[in-house]
Amino acid sequence: MELHWIWDWVGYAASIVVAISLTMADIKKLRWWNLLGAALFVLYGWAIAAYPVMLVNAFIVIIDAYYLVKIYRHEAEEES
Fold first, then answer.
1. CA-closest candidate to residue 8, choices 50, 36, 66
2. DSSP state, 1?
3. 69 vs 79, higher pLDDT
4. Model's pTM, two decimal places?
5. Cβ contacts of 46 within 8 Å, gap of 6 or more
6. Rounded distance between C-alpha atoms, residue 79 and residue 59, angstroms
7. Average pLDDT for residues 44-52, to the nearest whole number?
8. In angstroms, how far is CA 15 from the centroid of its own chain?
């Protein structure tokens, strides 16, 4: 298998994971799945030199991580 086919499959996997994330009713699950999909798109964009794809998805990873930290902090505050 040639290397470019591997990256094609990473792109397909990223698309599927992002699509799955959009079916989540639980915002925490949505953020985790979306973060994973965006991270895969970062790798994919880097591998095929599609820097706009890489950059926008890196931004999405940061946004998802920010909100996950916020969610977990809020949950920790409620428990104490």
1. 50
2. -
3. 69
4. 0.91
5. 54
6. 31
7. 96
8. 10
Structure token digits, residue 73: 């902090």
Instruction: Report the pLDDT value the prediction gives residue 4, as an integer from 0 to 100.
Output: 79
Phi, psi of 24 (to 5 degrees): -80, 130
Give percent of the chain with pLDDT exceeding 70. 99
Asked if 38 and 64 touch (Cβ cutoff 8 Å), the reply is yes
Q: How many residues comprise the chain?
A: 80
Q: From the CB of residue 31, how many other CB atoms can be counted at a distance below 10 Å?
A: 20
Report pLDDT digits (tens) over 4-31: 789 999 999 999 999 999 999 999 999 9
Provide the 10 A C-beta neighbour count for residue 37: 24
What's CA 17's distance to the chain center, in Å?
8
Assigned token pair, 21: 């994330």
